[in-house]
Inverse folding.
């Protein structure tokens, strides 16, 4: 086998493994999440897998996304806990159903039902092009 064949085979194997991992973990990627009910919140979540470990960024209503110190999948459920002012925040529990998420977060005074979806994919547009 030539070096060229080896490189092509290694690339194909890498793509196949990455695809298999993404198919096994339906939570990977970006999500827009909102709570149901009054004053229930709007959130943004990004889940990545680096070296077999999950990592995530979370935006809780405003400011900028912060890394998630706790993020895991247990019994098919995504569980994560953001940090607020150097203290653990509420624990989010979400389940994937295709390109949708459903779940809950327990806040101090109530439990909020959550629904999520992947953000829309926009095409490439040139704002400087002639209109």
């Amino acid at each position: 086998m030539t070096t060229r064949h080896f490189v092509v085979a290694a690339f194909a194997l890498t793509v196949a493994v990455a695809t298999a991992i993404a198919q096994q973990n339906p939570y990977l990627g970006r999500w827009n999440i909102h709570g149901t009910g009054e004053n229930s919140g709007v959130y943004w979540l990004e889940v990545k897998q680096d070296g077999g470990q999950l990592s995530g960024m979370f935006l809780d209503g405003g400011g900028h996304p912060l890394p998630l110190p706790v993020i895991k999948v247990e019994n098919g459920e995504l569980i994560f806990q953001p940090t607020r002012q150097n203290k653990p925040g509420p624990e989010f529990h979400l389940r994937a159903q295709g390109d949708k998420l459903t779940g809950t977060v327990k806040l101090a005074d109530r439990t909020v039902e959550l629904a999520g979806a992947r953000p829309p994919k926009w095409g490439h547009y040139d704002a400087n092009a002639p209109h």
